[in-house]
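Field: COMPLEX_INPUT
Field: COMPONENT_COUNT = two
Field: RESIDUE_TOTAL = 545
Field: MODE = joint
Values follow.
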Amino acid sequence: MQSLVIIIISLFFIFLVFTERIYLLIHPDYINFNFAMAAFLLLFSVIAVWKKIKINRIDFVILIFFVILIILLPVKPLSSFTASNRNINIANLEESDANLIGLLQRDTKSLTIKDWVKLKNMEPDIDKFAGQDAVILGFVFNPPQFPKSQDENLFIGRFVVTCCAVDASPLGIEVATSDSEGNPLFDSYGNDDWVEVEGKWEVIARDGTKYLVLQPTSVRAVDIPTNPYI
Amino acid sequence: MLGISLDPRVQDTFTVFLAIVVEATPFIIFGVLIALLLEKFVSTDWLIKHSKGNRLLSHLIPASLGFLFPVCECGNVPVTRQLIAKGYSVSQAVSFFLGAPILNIVVFATTIAAFGGTPIIVITRMLAGLFIATLTGILVSYLAKPGGDDKELISQNLQDFCDHHHTKKRLEFNPRNIFNTLTSKETALSVITEFSGLFKYLVIGAGIAALTQIWLPRELVFTLASNPVLAIIAMMLLALVISVCSTVDAFVALAYVNQFSPSAILGFLIYGPMIDIKAITMLLSSFKPKLVFFITAVVTILTFAIANLVTYLGY
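Field: COMPLEX_OUTPUT
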């Protein structure tokens, strides 16, 4: 009966795939492989229970410990805490994408946060972005050590994941907390709330540095996307 | 699944831990399945025959055998013992033992999955593994008395094993045999035993990685990471302690990629598969302590030198 715990573990992997929670942990490219191997493990663990195979005691203790963890704890995306504590890494993205430049002349509202960060890396003259429309989807976070143009401004972020949540590195866009007439828009939102912000880019100078800031016209709450990482 | 609400920092630790386990587990199962098929269906005899020749070649071949026998550092001890019983010299077996956990198709796949964007890490890991495994084997070959018996380097336990060894018959590779093999009690036993043994180290390794990634003070990590030599030593020490299976250690190393340079990450990725606490313990079951110490010293020096060379080259 000891092998029952391995049945539980393989069912847990299959459960993660069916409930789409696996997107919170690993890159989508690995989901099929994960599912196939979990199926194999399930097959062998069923045979093992049937043939009454025993598991080494220390191994068994660790397996039980793991099962208790997965039963008790929720599977959630990485939070604003980690986003604020990792280097908000914008230099590491893939090299230029020529199509993006073309998009700048057309409908800029369809660009994602990742596109904007790429564009910003490609085009050092951020004045060129001023006045462009943007719709940004992400979670709210507020990294204390990261320089910004106004102390009360927040960041809207997404994590970029290449393999799994371990290597997640945050992207962030600075956003003003009130609209151009000074009406507060973020009063009901805090860290880790997912929002869609619509607005225009503005360039604001502080202490000799220029910052690209999103001046919002509207903010609305959204559900966490199935795959919160990009 | 019950969804206990946690402090974000604790929750993120669990998320990172679970991400490593979920990403790595299928590769463990894959490795166990391949090893199983090879054990049942492929004979090692012809390899032994073709591993003779000059000193360089006779150690280079065993060092790269992992590409045919994808065993990680936990699975390679039994295979190493078997190779000695079948006629490999101790020094050749050492080359296999050190090379197989790195020069291995599953390790290659996981290293690409984790570090495909940084080819220098993938390539250097493979080449350094081949170089260290071959060179250490050659050095060990000088330890045995010329023309004499190298059995003085191995433990009594392994000598007895060799004396009683007899080769198992290989099965013909056809669907019926595959089905029978997959559904036999013996197979389920070896899969479940292998899996739970490896999973244990994965859970411990992922736990240490998640804790250090989320909880180590930023200043400490920054101080370590900003000094290239200290960074390499820190990552090699981590590899020694963490003992995670080489087929999935690339995912554990990813936890440090935001802070540490490729040279320090390489220190972890090259050293871990060859030497860690678990591997040393298992080696002592087969080799005399003198030989285990010699291997550990040579591999430590060579890994440290190569990682520093990578720093020197500007990575």
